[in-house]
Design goal:
The two termini are 32 Å apart. The chain has 8 helices and 3 strands. Helix 2 packs across helix 3, helix 5 packs antiparallel against helix 6 and helix 6 packs antiparallel against helix 7. It is elongated. It is mainly α.
């Protein structure tokens, strides 16, 4: 049977199915964007934790030297045991931060292994080399055109969902009108039934011209007695369409917010990193001066410990903010839809997997 597409029912079905296929591809691309961004972010977290560990260990070495100086002066009778206890307290506090950083580093490496699809033991070899937070570009695009946001797979996905649902209204409406179709049947039949029994049974006339039979003709159907049910189904499809439109608008607004948040975070964190670098440089100089003055007996040990404590704090903050600058830049690329392009020129299914599926 063949139904004539008088009211566009089948044309709209093809449109809806094609849009649904493209929506599936957009959903795949949206996943790639998230995967790429999360992989980059996790890598930056690993490098940031590695540098924070190096800074903590450097501060431990500085505080151990300070403790030796304090002990020497205590043994010489120049200071009380209180100075030694305070120096030990600061050293222990700094040493206690190292296991927590090591735990976070191990967890970040495990997370990267999951993202890359490898065993955790294989990540260390991939991260071999000098740990360094990736350098970021000094210039970024401030004025983001609307077409750039259209590259985002989630926006394309929301738009294609609208395109998928819109033809469903026409498909539902087509049931309000009569359906015209052509039907036919053709085949062969045996008429020499008496020969079907006994040793002389035969179907000798099966392929004779008289055994050919066929029927054909036009027809139509019209479900006019169920207009109320059909109209309600049209309303349902229309309501689903309006829902996809609202979802599309919300997706666009959220995209603009993410771009603005990521851009503001990148610019402000870069300024913060510059100020903290100046603070760390000054703190290192303060530590050197305070130790020299302490040897000469010009300041008490509390001044020395305060400068070292502040250096430890500012160095850790500076490293963390450096990592934040890089992660905010990753967030910008993600907000603008970067990352899905890695699938260009590649099959959606690997050849080996395709062979197994077949």
């Amino acid at each position: 049977a063949w139904e004539l597409d008088v009211w566009g029912k089948f044309r709209r079905s093809v449109e809806s199915t094609a849009a649904n296929l493209e929506a599936s591809i957009a959903g795949y691309d949206d996943f790639l964007v998230s995967l790429t961004a999360e992989t980059a972010r996790t890598y930056i977290v690993i490098r940031t934790l590695e540098q924070r560990l190096d800074i903590a260990r450097d501060n431990v070495r500085i505080q151990k030297r300070s403790l030796q100086i304090v002990r020497a002066r205590f043994e010489g009778g120049d200071v009380s045991e209180l100075d030694v206890a305070q120096a030990k307290s600061l050293l222990g506090d700094t040493q206690a931060s190292i296991p927590a950083l090591e735990r976070g580093l191990r967890q970040a490496k495990n997370a990267l292994a999951i993202l890359l699809g490898v065993l955790p033991s294989e990540v260390d070899s991939l991260l071999a080399g000098t740990p360094q937070i990736p350098n970021v570009t000094t210039e970024v695009i401030v004025d983001i055109p609307a077409d750039l946001l259209r590259r985002r797979p989630d926006i394309r996905l929301a738009e294609l969902r609208v395109a998928t649902q819109s033809p469903q209204i026409g498909i539902a409406k087509s049931d309000l009108y009569p359906h015209f179709f052509l039907f036919g049947t053709i085949g062969w039949q045996a008429t020499d039934a008496r020969k079907l029994v006994g040793p002389d049974s035969s179907l000798s006339d099966l392929f004779s011209s008289k055994s050919l039979y066929y029927t054909a003709g036009p027809g139509f159907s019209w479900d006019f007695l169920n207009y109320g049910r059909i109209r309600n189904r049209v309303r349902v499809e229309d309501a689903r369409f309006e829902q996809t439109v609202v979802s599309y608008k919300n997706t666009v607004l959220s995209a603009w917010q993410e771009v603005e948040d990521a851009l503001g975070g990148f610019l402000r964190s870069r300024e913060e990193a510059q100020f903290l670098l100046e603070s760390v440089t000054a703190s290192k100089r303060s530590v050197d001066i305070s130790l020299l003055q302490y040897r000469e007996g010009l300041v008490d040990v509390q001044r020395v410990l305060d400068t070292q404590r502040f250096l430890t704090l500012q160095s850790d903050r500076w490293t963390a903010v450096k990592g934040s600058v890089a992660t905010n830049l990753v967030a910008m690329y993600k907000a603008m839809g970067g990352g899905w392009q890695i699938r260009a020129g590649q099959d959606f299914i690997a050849p080996t997997v395709r062979e197994e599926m077949v």
